[in-house]
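Purpose: get a first structural picture of the assembly so the mutagenesis plan has something to point at.
Setup: two entries, given in the order below. No constraints added.
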Amino acid sequence: METQNGESGYVEILQKSQRPFNPLVVIEFTAGVKQAAIEWIVAKIQKSKAAGGAELDVNAVVMHHKQETVLYVGGSTERLLWAADMMDIKKEYRDGYHHEFSVDDVTNFRGSKDLDSFLTMAEKQKIILHELEAVRATEDDTAIAGYERFRLLSGNSIIKKYVSNGIIAKMYPLHDEEEIKRLGAEWYQLKKFANEQPIYQIRDYFGEKIGMYFAFLGFYTVALIPPAFIGILYLVTSWKSMYREAIFAVFNLIWATIFLEAWKRYCSELSFKWGQAQDVELNRSQEPRAMYHGTMDKNPVTGKPEPRYPKYKRSLRFYGVTVPVVGFCLMVAFYLMLGYFYLQAWADEVYAKDKTWLNMTLIYMPTAIYAVIIGIVNNFYRKIAKILNDFENHRLQSSYDNHLIVKLILFDFVNCFISLFYVAFYLQDMTLLRSHLAALLVTQQVIGQVREAMVPFIFVRRRKQQVDKVMQKEAAIQKVEYFNGEMDQTIQKQVNLESTMDEYEGTMDDYLEMFLQFGYVFLFSSAFPLAAFWALLNNVTEIRSDAFKMCRVFQRPFAESASNIGAWQVAFEVISVIAVITNCALIGMDPEVKKLLPSDISAVNIVIIFVAVEHVILAVKGAVAYCIPDTPKWVEIELEKMAFQSKQALHAERMAAASSQQKKLGDLLKLETRETSI
Amino acid sequence: METQNGESGYVEILQKSQRPFNPLVVIEFTAGVKQAAIEWIVAKIQKSKAAGGAELDVNAVVMHHKQETVLYVGGSTERLLWAADMMDIKKEYRDGYHHEFSVDDVTNFRGSKDLDSFLTMAEKQKIILHELEAVRATEDDTAIAGYERFRLLSGNSIIKKYVSNGIIAKMYPLHDEEEIKRLGAEWYQLKKFANEQPIYQIRDYFGEKIGMYFAFLGFYTVALIPPAFIGILYLVTSWKSMYREAIFAVFNLIWATIFLEAWKRYCSELSFKWGQAQDVELNRSQEPRAMYHGTMDKNPVTGKPEPRYPKYKRSLRFYGVTVPVVGFCLMVAFYLMLGYFYLQAWADEVYAKDKTWLNMTLIYMPTAIYAVIIGIVNNFYRKIAKILNDFENHRLQSSYDNHLIVKLILFDFVNCFISLFYVAFYLQDMTLLRSHLAALLVTQQVIGQVREAMVPFIFVRRRKQQVDKVMQKEAAIQKVEYFNGEMDQTIQKQVNLESTMDEYEGTMDDYLEMFLQFGYVFLFSSAFPLAAFWALLNNVTEIRSDAFKMCRVFQRPFAESASNIGAWQVAFEVISVIAVITNCALIGMDPEVKKLLPSDISAVNIVIIFVAVEHVILAVKGAVAYCIPDTPKWVEIELEKMAFQSKQALHAERMAAASSQQKKLGDLLKLETRETSI
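Result (structure tokens, whole complex):
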């Protein structure tokens, strides 16, 4: 057995360390992985930076009965601070701004009294991830040890290759039990229901990307209050002006614009406070995704060797493959929808002719069949979208994400909204539109709530009991290798628990849910004014259930930085433009509204009037968006202050250096005169 | 007489200098200005920087017969280089990039072999202007010498106060006779007619702002070739498809979008090559306009004392005064247009009833009256716009300019286009629209050509002869004070000539002309496909006549930097959006086009089809604009390279400093452990 001769292997490679060991990140190998591969990477992780290693501390625990090896990775405070310096992590300086952390200036950073807790746990874990990924294959490393078939190219990130080749099954940072209890108490406890979300704590614990999502979710939910309030008001008051739908729709459209602009401002405020705003975007100098491939070349900015994939090839793949395939999928979704409506019409007809109980159940059959088929198609499409996105071979994770977002949005837009468009503008049946919209919105939300909140809650309770049982059994059968002192039993229990947790898949699905809801609320607001109310009701609980999921259901995700919500901002803005068109068309088609106009106006002129109104609303919308600055004034001033100060400092430095050089310029000038006279 | 006791005054203040004196900038005082004021500012200009002066060289020439004093200002190479360093002027470095010039690094800048010609003449003049304006009133300077009523506040720019109080009549940089001949030969000589403009030479001579205007003019003119070609093709070929107007219009609309996007790319390319692109916009740290006023406060970024004018007051003035006044002016222009059409209809009627010669002249009366009134109203409005803009009290010149541009655009848009809208969409008379459009476009261009090219040409010839005569007379009567050696007779003749030249009013009117032309060509292209051809014809000569004006008719303007065309980009883009709406409406109204559709389509559905087409074109336009990157790839790479390199340098520096500090961090950590153990 490979495990047996491996046992001594560790001892040879490792020097035992007496430093206190604080595990931060867990690496789980797939069961049955060759010992050589494990030993090789453990050695790489422990080796010094100079020798091409990560210079981090590792504890290895081997569970004999499952053939699984688990690594616990940590690092000394000194090592992590140096890495933070090299990674340009931003920390609060004594001047109150966020500056790139520098070890030789450490005493001027806030919170540097206690160096061990100067970096947050999330920052430490992010650093460890970065350092692990930065361990690269040298010229001599041609393949993963023990696996000749997994070739390595010089410069490949070894750990990424382990993950992509399935040798490493999971890699996740550990939760901070104390901190997560404190955060949970602030965030999702029922008694704090009316409080604001602890956005800054969330960011400290989960990083900027997830912090930004919850800030957006909270901001959007608050923004739903006025339309929800007016919707309720319309429902309960007897005031039934003919204009009410129109007034409500116009209010909603302008409100959506103001909300999106106000969010941009709030977002840039958070971005500044979190030290994310000052960066120039350096896309090309960023390292490519692990899966990016191409012929080896030099990076045009950094000069480092990296694969290069010409843009025209990507465009060819995009326009030649992605566009037709996605177009075909959208067509399929469209025809499915048509089929549903024909089937429904047929069922209605049958029931109308012969009102038996059997035929009554027939009425509900098309909806049920449609729901099932859509579910299957949707799953299938998501797989296709991912394959296409991989196939496009994007260099950066951010552009990969944005292209995937667009693919998912397109399909979900057609899937969820095309039937509404069909009812509204082809069938032109306002009653059906209202009931269809209400049914879609409310059922999707109820299903979502159950799936997201109830099911995981039950699972978590059951899982904990299981883990307790397993731990009792395992204590007897597991074989442990210690390199940095004995592992705490509570941490092992924690890892056993977190190992069974689901991996957090990123913010994509959460944003997508909000995006669809935003569409339901604003695209047809004149048809169903109560939509905002239902959405508000959903989001108030959504926030708490999402919070619970983050804290208790999922493995902790690695912190990622973000300065805005990326492609989603554009997606929401596009919906808000389409909403102007749909609402104007809906109101223009309403026979009630037409009655209000003088009777001698021709039908053509009525259409022209509504088109004119639509253009005016679009122009106002554009003007509002243009006039509201994207950054609050104080943030602008602070950013300028920083830029100005660094410029001044450069200037002062130059002047100091120049006083000794002044003679030099004089000499140069004299020299010149002499040369000319000669 | 004050001039008499002033004569000795100069001698007391000035030390005679033996350095070769090269005059660069001319300052002309108003006739009859008190000698004390002149002496005071001459002293300030000559004093050392440390003593609050400009440390520049001055020659004063007094013309007794007119009581006019003229100052010639220059500076030593050393002085100018130091100022260039402090002003962060960008020069080409040996790595090929533009970097902020630094005296102690001078040998690494390209062209530093010959330091006297290292800075271009335009740069030297720009530096002198900056240094003159940087001479500020101290605590002791309470008023302009000799004029107790012209109060000074500590920190006021003295020379700006001289200009705004009318003590200085003119201040302009001298032309470089040799260089302007060379530039002119490349630029507007008939034999070089087919050549490209020497954009880089223009930029070197006139600065980036004017260089950018001519680059835009040239780029736009070339972009007119395809629509002009198609317009001609339609005219000469017998192919008379019903769709031809529609095809032409759609081509034009997409072409306009591509042109504007392509210009943005070309613009950012120029901006990069001219060293303008790398700056973060530091608005708040820029010095306010000379005319900006408010209560004294501190600049929020630099901390320097400066007037502060709260934003709400400006908004109050803008929405409370500017908006109503401008709105009223637009109404007046609209009613004038209505009046014209009524008068014309009346005259037509009279002539139709009684076709006498007298009544025939009557037909042309309304147009003549309208033209005259519009001319007067336009002049009047420009004055109002300037007063309103001053009243709004903008802090920066750029925001002052942009607000003035918007005001002028609004009025000229109504003035020039509203009658076309009236004919197209109210009267719905396509024949009248075509003839009206042709008349407006062609007459405006002919008038413009005559005014801009012919008249100045004649003036310049006469002026030269006059100056020769004056010089002969003046040689006897002028009294000259020399401080830096005798003034060259040719330079004095040159100044006498340039003094009588018109001041160049900036690029505003030139852009406005192009803006209106762009509107004529694209707003109604389906009605008058030949518009692009006429515009092209005009611009080919316009470029040369503008070039001639710049070189021979106007005083040389001070070079100003610019990285784009500012508010004009937005203005052109807005027109290109409006053009989609107008063209779709025009084609939709065309009875010929309607005949092509199946006859069973209702009128309402025809309108809806055209609205749908319009929305699709707008969406395509938006997508095209979104998909074409605003910056060419190579510029992006270069910019990122620069940012990356400076980041790397910072890093390397930090690492070097850190090696000695590494112990320090270790000490800190040890200290901490000790403290905890105690």
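Residues 224 and 536 of chain A are 6 Å apart (CA to CA).
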